[in-house]
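Training component of the fellowship. As part of building independent skills, the fellow (R.M.) carried out the full modelling exercise for a liganded target. The chosen ligand was flavin-adenine dinucleotide. The inputs are recorded below so that the supervisory panel can assess the work.
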Amino acid sequence: MNQTATIPGDQGLTDEALDLQRRARNYVEDVLIPLEQEAELLHGRLPEETIRLVKERALAAGLTGGLHKSENGGQGWSKTEWFLVEEQLGRSTNAISWHIPNGYNVWDLAAEKHVEKWLKPLLRGEARDAYAVTERGAGSDPSGIETTAVRTEGGFRINGEKWFVTSGDVADVLVVMANLDEGGELLPTLFVVDKSLGGVETIEDPGFTHSYPDGHPTIRFEDVEVEEDDVIGGVGGGDEVQKAWFAEERLGIAARGIGSMWRLLEETVEWAVTREQGGSRIIDYQGVSFPLADSATDAAAGRLLTLEVARLIDAGADPKVCHNKASMAKLFVSEAAWRCADRCVQIFGGRGYRRDNVAERFLRELRVDRIWEGTSEIQRLIIARGLEKRGVEALIQ
Ligand SMILES: Cc1cc2nc3c(=O)[nH]c(=O)nc-3n(C[C@H](O)[C@H](O)[C@H](O)COP(=O)(O)OP(=O)(O)OC[C@H]3O[C@@H](n4cnc5c(N)ncnc54)[C@H](O)[C@@H]3O)c2cc1C
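Fellow's submitted model of the complex:
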């Protein structure tokens, strides 16, 4: 099979990668984009029957569980392949892609018991998970985490409260960061908590700016008893596992942000070349064309940087450098994508303020990418520390 890259920069990708990119693109165009208006009107909550179809089509297209091992039901993609898919998913609004069966990457480190009980059902679309780290007093600075675990006869007892637990409203299982108190020493540890266990309670489920499928509730854990092997990454291994997870998540945010800019520019350029005011096409006014040119330049630059991070991780480059570069990609693209959405709203004029306009939805949806998985300010701190510790050359070459 000899395929041509749909994007000039993708020359040199394997045939498998190009085929994957094409499947993801078709899935987004045929399944996700047609559902956006309905999802927006329903505040993100599509009917069960529609969700079932979204899952089935993703399973048929081989887009589920991308980074997970094939023996566990995943696809075993490289980070570059994952980038290509996430970029396509970023072209659609309302996060309908969250219904594609998947599980957080940390499950790869879980015991066999959890692979069978949780990971495999997650990748078949029969269960949902959520990841709970943030707390009232611990956001950008996780050292303030107050959720604790203590040893019991058969395992651990967890107490605490987690904020902004994405999908916590629909999840069957939660991965919870808590400090295990071992004789006064606090060991950051990830626990697997079945949401149906006694003592797990949702205490608040506030509304947020976007119209997404799942909520971000506050969940309290009161004397929740888990078993000895309900730990991921080992006792005290929570921080290390999380570092690896952050680099990957930040890469994903950047990849989706590029897809969003791509769609925004396509729709806005089409509008700007057809809309006429004052006797001219509006694209002939520099006040309209220059912001588009700036956003296209941002998208192209962000794409190169993000793809480079994916390729570096695949090539086994120094994880610390990859971590720094993933922060650069997340910082650059999340800020550029939101600027792009803001410019596109302006170019659509009054139509850009309607909820049935793609730019209006992206303007609300892209804002959180500058906050979650580490705010823009935290990314800058990480990059600045990297400059000091690893040197300018390591970060920019
Ligand atoms: C929709 C949504 C979904 C989320 N999903 C999850 C989830 O699934 N699981 C989870 O665990 N968390 C989740 N979060 C939490 C998210 O990761 C945090 O909101 C984020 O890390 C910021 O923490 P904070 O909100 O406590 O803000 P704070 O840390 O209180 O920061 C407030 C402001 O101060 C700035 N600031 C803080 N420290 C510094 C510093 N050292 N230097 C400069 N500026 C600084 C920040 O950049 C920010 O502008 C989610 C958040 C949102 C909004």
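The panel noted the following from the submitted structure. Residues 238-274 form the longest helix (37 residues). The beta strands are 129-132, 148-151, 155-162, 173-182, 185-194, 200-204, 218-227, 231-232, 276-277, 280-281.
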